[in-house]
Amino acid sequence: MESSELQRITSWLIDGAWSSKAPAEMTAEACERMVAAGLPLWRFGIFIRTLHPEIFGRNFIWREGEEVEIGTVDFEILETPEFARSPLRVVFEQGLEVRGRMEDPRSKHFPFFDDMRAEGVTDYVATPMQFLDGSVHATSWTTRHPGGFTDDHIAAIHAIIKPLARITEIISLRRTAEMLLDTYVGNRAGARILGGQIRRGHNDTMQAAIWLSDLRGFTALSDRLPAETVVEILNHYFDCQVAAIRGHGGEVLKFMGDGLLAVFPIDEYVGDAAHVCTRVLEAARESRASVEALAYPVGDVVERFRFGVALHVGNILYGNIGGGNRLDFTCIGPAVNLAARLEKITGRLGRTVVASEMFANVCRHDWHELGEFPIAGFSKAQRVYGLTEETPVAMA
């Protein structure tokens, strides 16, 4: 590769690779530029470790003449024989470069090389790519060029690694911020925070269906079981709801002990309140079935569980609330307060699902009026509705 062409590529990366709008596009354009400059690449891979509770890392694989493949791997890969015998393990764990000339008997052998050799690869290089925080990520470079990479080719690869690491780190940090916000505050709130809504007083009014639930008998459960067991039970219990809520368009805003607060936004301009509330009810039914099926063995006893969920619809204030530099992105308002009060009524009535009069009027399903109940903080008693399909269960 000519030094002038190499400098153009490194400058493009340092300048932010502005001609590419997404990581896959940046990967493809970088590889195409390197090939055009004389680096005989056939396959290139970039492997980024992520800060995510379920995903170990992401990878972008470019092959000449093909679309960039994007993949994710979970933490289970660390226990697989494939990873144990992979050159990338050496890169990740030891921070060392791995070189494999396919026809050189002195090269260290990895099973992966057999696959590469079968595809006509003559040379393979896996290099560490270090971020500023010291974390080690990886790139891999393969060629079908007769004789493999030359010394000049390897020098060019080494020259590209540092600027590639900087632009990759910037992209990775932004994605990490998005994932952490999604994990801890939800995707809708996360997008708003990342978009600049970070000051107290940044809030909006939104119409939404409100979901507020908690686990029956949680206090007694916490008293008689070890804390670690209680946490594990709570995780399984929340799994029963979160998948259904998100699958039907809702966003989980907060876990409060055994309580869960979620909202399902309503587009008042479209007028889809009935559709949204119908999906909320579907999510409630799915969660009810999942919780009823949940069985957790503790010694000789199998614990079974019940929960209650209150459904309401109304306007909420959605945004930053807190003191000083410690804020919470959440929702408040009379509608949320009413949902919280209704949730307590589920236990008194032995019901799993109860709805406010407003929710029942919007979501016209087979509701049964359970009566009027005085609600603390509200001047008028509120009509409460339950599903006809449910049989009340006496609460101990």
Automatic annotation (TrEMBL):
Pfam families: Guanylate_cyc (PF00211). One of its GO terms (biological process) is intracellular signal transduction. Transmembrane segments: none annotated. Gene3D superfamilies: Nucleotide cyclase. InterPro entries: A/G_cyclase, Adenylyl/Guanylyl_Cyclase_3/4, Nucleotide_cyclase. GO terms for molecular function: adenylate cyclase activity. SUPFAM superfamilies: Nucleotide cyclase (SSF55073). Residues 209-343 form the Guanylate cyclase domain. This is Adenylate/guanylate cyclase domain-containing protein. The lineage of its organism: Bacteria, Pseudomonadati, Pseudomonadota, Alphaproteobacteria, Hyphomicrobiales.
